[in-house]
Specification:
The chain is α+β, with helices and mostly antiparallel strands. The protein contains 14 helices and 21 strands.
């Protein structure tokens, strides 16, 4: 009866219904019997909610889709994230809206919301994939998807937990014929479609009309917008899942997270969070002595046995950036070598290791390779395998994944060792190097040159060797240090050591003594552990600080050899 009502409504109104999509791909208009091998819709929804460890990561997945649709040459992309306003300004703002314009035609919403379906091409990182459904389900029990295409063509879809059952996964969508009659058509759907009415009742706080009015406010705002193509995701009543601080805290964390998460955002791309514009080029402003290296990584043959290990015939390129982070240098538990891996396949940060010294084969004790040392890897051509939610690297998906990971980490470790030892030798000690880095904590650089475009410092004419299973530079002191014009934030040269002035020698005035009547044999007398009176009557002093000088020099020489290659 419900399906017959839908068909009658379609024939009698100006609305074209894209039938609710089920897991087996059949539609409610089809008279073909449903497949007997159904997937539990409730179970599928529950699995979606467990794919993200925090609300911010789920929002980043939606953000990826917005970037795919927006980030293109000669197009002024814009993404806005703001709180979903309550009706008439009354009530709590417990929802989040993510809105972006689009550079190309938007696929049909029925296709976008097809479970396990995707319209994205090989060069796209997340548009219309499974991640949209997963992220929405992880954040909210009801998410509204609104689109506007060229010619004011509007569509509505929603992911609603209450529509899921053991018989399948139901994700309805609706397309309008006439954008000038949005109010009439939306109300017509609400009156004739039980699924739509149920969703609007939930969105309106148990009041269908209030839910419809809130939806119309979004549609009318899109109608008045100058952008001819827009995509909006409305997340109703964000699910906290143990996250403290509510929607306000999530938005604040997102504003801090986005500049660090995306590495290559162009100047003509605008991002607003709570109406505040975000500034990107995070690392370009933050790091001291920014250096850049391009490496070629062999994903199949171990560097320990391959003949062309130093420059493989077959492999992929990655870009390595190194620098010192003054903001971390003074934090005792957060100043070790930090490794951040960015993927061009996902477009953002996919792995961060707070202390990567062990993975990179570096000395991991004490303050070695600390002082805020930061290593950034840019996967230039997207060759690193990722998990479905793009939250981490999945080397296990490759047949030779362990070899790929070992080669990658070994080469990163080789250049990190080279970079750190260079500056350690300049300053002579880890303490002096750390003080110099920390002294730049409040210095900022804006506007900096983008990582992708800048000419940063580097080393040239390098020769490498394999020693004790590690890759190391064998001509570090003879290698050419090439200063880059865009490495503007630099460490200052250490001050030369001041010479120690010796006090002038003055001969003491002679002291007249009375002659002794008898001169006896001097007896050996101990006046302390460092004083001895010899048989000739003179006192011999032993300076404890002078004892073991040769031993100390020997130990110092041995310690300095740890840094030699």
């Amino acid at each position: 009866a419900l399906f017959a009502g839908l068909l009658n409504t379609m024939n009698s109104s100006h609305v074209l219904f894209s039938s609710p999509v089920r897991i087996d791909g059949s539609s409610n208009e089809s008279r073909t019997p449903m497949s007997t091998s159904h997937i539990d819709g409730k179970g599928l929804w529950a699995s979606w909610t467990r794919n993200f460890i925090s609300p911010e990561l789920a929002l980043l997945d939606l953000f990826d889709n917005a970037i795919d649709a927006t980030l293109h040459d000669e197009f002024d992309g814009k993404i806005q994230v703001y709180r979903d306003p309550p009706l008439n300004g009354e009530g709590r703002c417990d929802g989040i809206v993510l809105r972006n314009n689009c550079s190309r035609p938007i696929p049909k919403l029925s296709t976008v919301l097809t479970v396990f379906g995707s319209e994205k091409r090989a060069d796209q990182i997340g548009e219309n994939g499974v991640g949209v459904k997963q992220a929405c389900a992880a954040l909210s029990d009801l998410s509204l998807i609104l689109t506007k295409d060229k010619g004011k063509k509007f569509s509505i879809g929603f992911l609603f937990k209450d529509l899921q059952s053991a018989n399948g996964c139901l994700i309805p969508s609706f397309t309008f014929k006439n954008g000038d009659q949005l109010v009439e058509e939306v109300k017509n759907i609400s009156e004739n479609n039980a699924q739509f009415e149920l969703a609007m009742r939930h969105y309106g706080g148990d009041n269908v009309n209030d839910g419809v009015d809130r939806l119309l406010a979004h549609l009318q705002d899109m109608y008045a917008s100058e952008d001819e193509r827009e995509f909006i995701v409305v997340l109703h009543r964000i699910i906290q899942r143990g996250h403290g601080g509510g929607v306000k805290a999530i938005m604040e964390n997102l504003a801090k997270l986005l500049p660090k998460t995306y590495l290559h955002i162009p100047e003509n791309f605008q991002v607003f969070v709570n109406e505040q514009p975000l500034k990107f080029k995070y690392w370009e402003q933050r790091l001291l002595e920014l250096h850049k290296f391009t490496l070629k990584i062999d994903p199949h043959h171990s560097f320990k046995i391959a003949e062309d290990w130093h420059y493989p015939n077959h492999g992929h390129y990655v870009c390595l950036y190194l620098g010192f982070d003054p903001a971390r240098a003074g934090i005792a538990n957060d100043n070790k070598t930090s490794l951040l891996i960015y993927s061009r396949q996902s477009g953002r940060l996919v792995r961060q290791i707070e202390d990567a010294r062990g993975q990179l084969g570096l000395t991991s004790g004490g303050t070695d390779f600390a002082q805020g040392l930061t290593v950034i890897l840019d996967d230039l051509n997207g060759n690193l395998p990722l998990t479905p939610t793009k939250q981490d690297i999945a080397f296990g998906q490759q047949a030779s994944g362990k070899v790929h990971e070992r080669n990658l980490m070994s080469w990163i470790g080789a250049f990190t060792h080279l970079y750190y030892q260079h500056f350690l030798e300049i300053y002579g000690s880890k303490g002096d190097l750390g003080k110099e880095v920390l002294s730049h904590e409040h210095n900022t650089l804006y506007p900096p040159v983008a990582l992708n475009d800048g000419k940063f410092s580097s080393f040239e004419e390098l020769v490498f060797k394999i020693a004790k299973g590690k890759i190391r530079c064998s001509n570090r002191r003879k290698a050419k240090w090439a200063m880059g014009k865009d490495t503007v934030r630099k460490l200052r040269k250490p001050a030369p050591a001041l010479p120690v002035k010796k006090a002038p020698m003055t001969s003491p005035k002679p002291v007249k003594r009375k002659a002794m009547k008898t001169v006896g044999k001097a007896t050996k007398k101990h006046t302390g552990p460092d004083r001895e009176v010899k048989s000739n009557g003179f006192i011999d002093l032993h300076d404890d600080d002078s004892i073991g000088i040769s031993d100390i020099k020997e130990r110092s020489f041995e310690e300095s050899n740890d840094f030699k290659l």
